[in-house]
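Is magnesium ion placement plausible here? Inputs below.
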Amino acid sequence: ADLKFKPGEDSRFNWQSLEDFRKGHDLKGQTLTIFGPWRGEDEALFKNVYAYFVEATGVDLKYSSSENYEQQIVIDTQAGSPPDVAILPQPGLIADLASKGYLTPLGDETKKWLLDNYAAGQSWVDLSTFKGKDGTAALYAFPYKIDVKSLVWYVPENFEDAGYEVPKTMEDLKALTEKIVADGGTPWCIGLGSGGATGWPATDWVEDLMLRTASPETYDKWVKNEIPFTDAAVVGALDEFGWFAKNDTFVDGGAAAVASTDFRDSPKGLFASPPKCYLHHQASFIPSFFPEGTVVGQDADFFYMPPYASKPELGNPVLGAGTLAMITKDTPASRAFIEFLKTPIAHEVWMAQSSFLTPFKSANKEAYANAPMKKQGEILLDSTTFRFDGSDLMPGKIGAGAFWTGMVDFVGGKSANDVAADIQKAWDAIK
Amino acid sequence: MTGLVLRDIRKSYGAVDVIHGIDLDIKQGEFIVFVGPSGCGKSTLLRMIAGLEEITGGDMTIDGERVNDVPPSKRGIAMVFQSYALYPHMTVYDNMAFGMRIAGESKEEIDRRVRSAADILQLTQYLDRLPKALSGGQRQRVAIGRAICRDPKVFLFDEPLSNLDAALRVATRIEIAKLNEQMADTTMIYVTHDQVEAMTLADRIVVLSAGHIEQVGPPLELYERPANLFVARFIGSPAMNIIPAKITAAGEATALELTGGRTSSVDIPTAASEVGKTASFGVRPEDLQITTGEDFLFEGTVSIVEALGEVTLLYIEGLVPGEPIIAKIPGILAVRRGDKVRFTADKARLHLFDAAGNSYRAA
Amino acid sequence: MTGLVLRDIRKSYGAVDVIHGIDLDIKQGEFIVFVGPSGCGKSTLLRMIAGLEEITGGDMTIDGERVNDVPPSKRGIAMVFQSYALYPHMTVYDNMAFGMRIAGESKEEIDRRVRSAADILQLTQYLDRLPKALSGGQRQRVAIGRAICRDPKVFLFDEPLSNLDAALRVATRIEIAKLNEQMADTTMIYVTHDQVEAMTLADRIVVLSAGHIEQVGPPLELYERPANLFVARFIGSPAMNIIPAKITAAGEATALELTGGRTSSVDIPTAASEVGKTASFGVRPEDLQITTGEDFLFEGTVSIVEALGEVTLLYIEGLVPGEPIIAKIPGILAVRRGDKVRFTADKARLHLFDAAGNSYRAA
Amino acid sequence: MSQLLFAVFTMVGGVLACAAYFFGTNWLLDRIFPSKGRTGAEASRNLRITNAIRPWLFMAPALFALAIYLVYPVFESVRLSFHDRSGTRFVGFSNFAWMINDGEFRQSIFNNFLWLLVVPALATFFGLVIAALTDRIWWGNIAKTLIFMPMAISFVGAAVIWKFVYDFRSEGSEQIGILNAVVVALGGTPEAWMTIPFWNNFFLMVILIWIQTGFAMVILSAALRGIPEETIEAAVIDGANGFQIFFKIMVPQIWGTIAVVWTTITILVLKVFDIVLAMTNGQWQTQVLANLMFDWMFRGGGDFGRGAAIAVVIMILVVPIMIWNIRNATREMEGH
Amino acid sequence: MIASSRSPLIILVHLSVLLLVALWTLPTAGLLISSLRDKDQLAVSGWWTALSTSSQNLTGRASAPDAQVERDGKFVISGNLTEGGSAKVSAFGVRPMQPAAFEPGTAADIGDGQTLTVNEDGSYELVSPAKMEGTRGQRIFYTASVPPRFTLDNYREVLSAAGIGSSFINSLTVAIPSTIIPILVAAFCAYALAWMPFPGRAILIAVIVGLLVVPLQMSLIPLLRLYNGVGAFFGVPAKTYVGIWLAHMGFGLPLAIYLLRNYMAGLPREIMESARVDGASDFDIFVKIILPLSFPALASFAIFQFLWTWNDLLVAMVFLGTGNDELVLTGRLVNLLGSRGGNWEILTASAFITIVVPLIVFFSLQRYLVRGLLAGSVKGG
Ligand SMILES: Nc1ncnc2c1ncn2[C@@H]1O[C@H](COP(=O)(O)OP(=O)(O)OP(=O)(O)O)[C@@H](O)[C@H]1O
Ligand SMILES: Nc1ncnc2c1ncn2[C@@H]1O[C@H](COP(=O)(O)OP(=O)(O)OP(=O)(O)O)[C@@H](O)[C@H]1O
Ligand SMILES: [Mg+2]
Ligand SMILES: [Mg+2]
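Reply from A.M.:
I modeled the complex. Tokens:
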């Protein structure tokens, strides 16, 4: 395979780690099947990464993906023909697979490695620890490739023209929102539409606001339903979101448009002439839906979704998401692949290609392809609290079901209390 | 060589009884014609013989073997369907060749037989056509051709000539007769409404009525000595004239008083016990002659004159109210509507039936 | 009241020409019968009149109005199809009532007319059946019933009686004749292969052959004075006997020398120029009489005797090789196969055709 | 190239193997129980045997495939419906008990009945009308191809298509959904069609009707062409106009096929889920049984017990249709 | 019938078909046009606007300051906003909130003494008394009427994707036998159910109808388990072409049998009887009479079965696999969409690329949906 970056040539990369890895792993004649969520451009990027693994080990690697990866992995594991390694973005799904005994624990050594090498290591270990079939918790997954969600996107030139400043606190953000309305503009573009997954962008909002209004421990309890959905903290976060989304003058198209506007379309309002909105809350992947030719950092930029000045004890929480790799069939090759993910090079190669963030401290920050990526990487590394997307941690029926539906109902006019009660009812039903 | 034997054959469609128990022995090589009114069960009987219709009751044997449950293909039959039943997707040639191909005949043999059948039936120029591009008569001929191409033990024909013109009908009829002669061992069963066909082709005619047999016999016997009123009326066209009568004297010859008052005597012996009973006196239209003498059988007014060329039909009113007597007189007559005409008839050719409709002669 | 006029009507299916130019005037109220060999185009012509078949060439007018492009429903016709064309999903009753329902007749009127038609056609007990549970003849009767239930300007019948038994056929024929009488204004066009039907029903008969008209005329005219050999052979059953001959003397009567050497003379005038030409001498089977005298027309050996009851058919070999002369003698004869028989015939009933097949009489 | 060769080879091989089965078994049967050229009694005995066996020979591959691919999973579903989420622990009727109390399930049942009422009837109706109308015009085939197109379009494609129809943009901004564009052009205010409870069901149904009309059209147009031309001619002569011919002559004659199409679409409606999944995923009260089942089966690892229980309900719903078909089949066989 | 084809009713027929066709194709037309549009336009304006010249608010950017030239002591940047100059500018502005503040040709003051002039043809001139700084050009907002513009880029992108050719062949390898085999199998079965008497026939028919309802998703796991078992037993890979053919056959059979049986049961009984009398066995009758006469039904089912197998993704993914060499066309195209499925321009184009083959199949099989196949075979009602 052609290697994207010639080993040894670019000093940003830790080539030594590749050489070290090569030594202990000769997998010639073996095959490794990986099932992952990346398709299209992402697949090409990932291919460039695993090319180094193939080059180093001589393994015959087959990567496949599916539009319905959730369904596919359930079918494949249930039917007894799983891939060797699965990489999935949904901890809830992984928990389920683990509880059914389809995953192989990665062992204490890996756990220790994560604690040592990942920023906010304990968060990551907690995230990747699930109960197995026998009920004992173990590390089953390896976080690889992170998205930061606590971002607000804007067009710097529009801010400049209108004389707006990037807000540093949530209070400022709310003030800015009102100011834009006063200026005759519309501050926000919010779109929850996503076909069958409609509603999910709102869950990010709520989670982000939850981390800014309640403690991380409350957040953890919430996602495990140790406090009910109807808890005041949760309802409060919902209402915070409602402040933005349920105000007709705050959102492009009015509150009614929120639920049905496609999340992929909604950022386009930033770039319209005249602009349909000035602000857009979305994760780090969103630039791929910006108009062609948009240069992030110049034509569009982001700022960290600020915390409340009134709640300094919460620090700078970061909401994120990411994919986790796990062993679905225990073979030397799959073990080796997890080992490979522990090398800096496995991270740096993707960092250098864009749309990849990592909390891996040893990965060279300079390898990030551009300034915005680096800025996001810094947000991640600087975070005092990192929390994984709550809806992904909840059981599928809630996090990818009742919660979504609830949010659609919420922006559709239902009160926060009612919505929370509905979701809690659904949660009770699956217990 | 016992041929085909039907014993108390019955058929019902659900609650409708169609065949009420038929007993019939058909010798091998015989030519049997089924006649009977429309809907009396001829086709049904034929289809049962072919094995296409389940036999509800009774036994059928071919050559001594019970065949009730033997499928059609094993009975060694060929059949011409009343509704043709051509294969719509095959050309005329293929329609005729189908059976032989199934039987695995050689190509040359098939070709020879198809062409000769087509020749006989004047179909040669249509061999490449599909049935839908044929006229009604042509379709019927294909159906016949299909049957005669094969070489079966039993031929079944269901009104095979009904859509043909007179000339072709005669020609085809003669071909069938020839076929019958050439294949002395082949039994033929033939349904027709055509008197001429029935009379000329049949070794024996079976007269059916409402699902049972009225009479079986050679054509002339049926014509001359019909067993009952039904057969008498059915055989011969126009039908036999029937005049209600009363027996006035019995003996070697029977004396009668006809409706209308005329008396007559017929050469049929009756028992003395019959005197005084009502009877039906029958005379065929073609047995009536016009007379000017006094010794006439009856007299009447001509209501319709139908000149057919070779014969003239006279419809005579006045004897039986509402039912004209028909006379068939050779040649073209000068008789006009409204004329009063007297008729006489050969005594030997008169018929007499009892009140139940059975012939005195047969008794 | 000009009725129906056909002017140079033509029809072709792709490259196949089926109708070659028909000219025909049919007066309103006339009863026209089409006869002709199977496949000659009768059904096609009928279907063109009905408007079911596009007219490839020529003009058709009804009551003076060109109707080539008028849809069938606007032509005021009723038709009995050769293949019945019953509505398979409707009961017999509904089949017959359909047209009237469409026309919006009252329920009582429909019921009355359906029941009376069913009565005539002996279908009353089948009114609730679907066509598939009927015999062939019953289906045909339903088709007729459907047509006579309606009240059209023109009736078209395509072999309506072909599947009926003799008795029913006569009865139905008479019903049709009655219908024709009652509805003096209704034109009827009737296709049949049955000579008797053609002769009894027709005001005029149209003899078709291979898509063109051979002769048009009243039945007896066609029988007595066929315009050509084709008509001569076609009308009458069995067909007219044709014997090749040579004209030996012309004048008021024509003297002939027949094949086989016998001479004869016919009461047909010919021009002197015809002497020496070959001609066809024709005599109908029913015009032949057996004679023992010396003044016979010809002599031959009987090869087949067909006794039909009322008449006997004799097939005489020896005159024209390969083509037996047929004689139709009334009654049942004592003649046997192999007998030598002499025949004579009335001079006035002989026919003579020139080499092209046209009658000398007509000329 | 080699892939092409392989493809052609496997294709031909597969098809030939299948054909060989039928010819082979049939030949064998005639070999084992010969009737040609045998004497009477033996021949007819053999014939009886072959006649009893042959239907099963003809049906064997079909029955085999049906048994494995459909019957076996049915039993598996029934079994799973009495088990817990991982399909291992027996839980009795608790899945069904849960179901009855589940609001979403009741919503789905209600919606499914709406679908069953509307979609099969309309799709069959449009299919029939289009088949009849296009039958006799010169560009009928082109028209049919165009109407068939939705059937041929992949589901992802269809989802985009209807996005361009139902899309909603706020008032004042440019509409990219044609429905709202029309509404706006007529002076109305744009609507978020997918979110209007109850009515949104119908907007979803429109999509399925749009797709399934092609199915109905193709099947019915084959049936229409089987109608004997003469019966139509007879009706023309009887003075029937186009509508009368259509409703009184053609429709009754293809009634059997109409029933088949209707049945097929009805069953398909019971199974419909991809439209709902792609357009709303059951939100805004548009949930249907099949999507609910899918949701429980696969979302977040899946709950096989509940998924299977819903599947069992779907399968039970088809029972009336089966009974109706048994009736039809027996009646039809009597008619023969 | 010909005569009636000239009646005024026929015009009505033409019109109603036209209307129905329009209704049915309108949504698809949207897709087609969208697939030819520029991908940024897709989500911004309705597809129908692409057909005509439209007035759009656009944003452009002047060339970067390093392109400035000094003229008469002033610094000038000039250029053209509309590449090729096909659009016509009707207004322009320099601030996002007032995109149409100036008429074309007028000089807009943008502060610091700088002026901007945009002409109708899209050419602009930015004049500054002082040397301009920065790396980016000045944004220019303008309203322009843009003529329809179409591009084949979307198609090019889809068609040039790696592996599309072999996926195409994979799809055919799946679809063709998956169409032919079930038809053959179903036809035999349908014949037996329609014309061969045996006990339990009606029940069997009903069961087959009932099986129509079995949700595909329910079967996948048990079946795949079975496959793995069989595969392991024989030591062959579980996911093979034969496996997927059988799967498609299994799922397609109920409908096939149901449709075909219904059709075959409607064939005239006499034809079969006649063949039987001619000595044909059931096998002969089936092959020589039933099959040819069932062509309309076979063709219509073939159309659907082909279409389903061709457009199928799920069964192929499960039974054939998701790897690169097994991927069918639908799988390949879906993978092009990227992980978040937002690339409508690819969706639109690939929808039309996949539709081509089924449409060809439809068009070529359509001629088997013939009229009057049975004409002339039997007489009577
Ligand atoms: N579709 C067609 N294509 C070609 N030739 C046809 C077609 N239909 C009929 N013919 C031919 O046209 C001729 C006339 O057919 P038509 O049905 O009018 O005959 P007919 O006089 O009614 O015969 P019959 O007495 O046998 O019913 C026949 O020779 C027939 O083969
Ligand atoms: N499927 C059926 N159900 C009920 N009755 C039937 C069925 N088929 C035929 N019949 C009746 O059985 C009787 C005999 O029918 P068949 O066809 O044998 O008559 P046929 O003697 O051939 O008459 P035709 O000379 O008119 O052809 C008819 O009265 C008919 O109505
Ligand atoms: Mg009959
Ligand atoms: Mg005809």
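Short version: Chain B touches chain C through 60 residues (CB under 8 Å).
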